[in-house]
Each structure stands twice: as C-alpha cells, then as structure tokens.
Specification:
The structure is a single chain. By secondary structure, this protein is mainly alpha-helical. 62% of the residues lie in helices and 0% in strands. Helix 1 packs across helix 3.
C-alpha cells in the first residue's frame, strides 16, 4: 500500500497506421507468399496485429473497417438516437429556464 504505480512505457506513443497501409498489409497476409511472422517483421508491426486487421476487415468490410477513433458520424446514428439526444438537450434547457424563472420571481416585491 502507498506504493505508486509507474507506467512501464511512459514515454512511448502508440503507433498509428494509415488505412491504406492496413489494407495492403492484409492483402499481403492473404496472398500467403510469406509467413505472417516474417511479414510482420518486415512491416515493423506485431504478428497478432495483422490478424486483428484481417478479422476487422472481414467483419466490417473495406468501407467500414479502420475508421479510426472518435465518435460516430451523425449519419451513422439512427433517427431514434438523434431524437433522444435532442430531447435530452431541450429538457435540460427547459429545467434551467424553470429554475431561472423561479429565482427571479423571488426577487420581485
């Protein structure tokens, strides 16, 4: 207890690869001309990362795979999700206005 945890690789940054790089790497893997371990070594990545990219490409398809981090695009949300978010925002605004009206009503003589 009382011992602070240290990050193992505090100064190391996560590598990011372009979508085109990932697609080409998976194509080379699926071509089968070289073993996955040798291909990964030549590309400078881990072997299991090749397999993860291959699985992602297979499950999502080329258009949706490797979209990167972040929130979904608004077009990806369903109409119901969009309406729920809008209702939540409008409800919060209404509640704030109710509280403000009650506060200013107390101030009046």
């Amino acid at each position: 207890m009382g011992k602070e945890l240290e990050k193992v690789n505090a100064g190391r940054r996560r590598a990011r690869f372009a979508k085109e790089f990932k697609l080409e790497a998976v194509k080379l893997l699926e071509a089968g001309q070289k073993p996955a371990a040798q291909l990964a070594l030549e590309l400078g990545i881990r072997r299991n990362q090749l397999y993860k990219w291959q699985a992602q490409l297979g499950s999502k398809g080329e258009a949706a795979a490797f979209r990167g981090p972040g929130a979904k695009r608004l077009s990806d949300y369903s109409e119901v999700d969009r309406l729920r978010r809008e209702l939540k925002r409008v409800t919060e605004e209404r509640d704030i206005l109710k509280k403000a009206a009650a506060y200013f009503a107390k101030e009046l003589p």
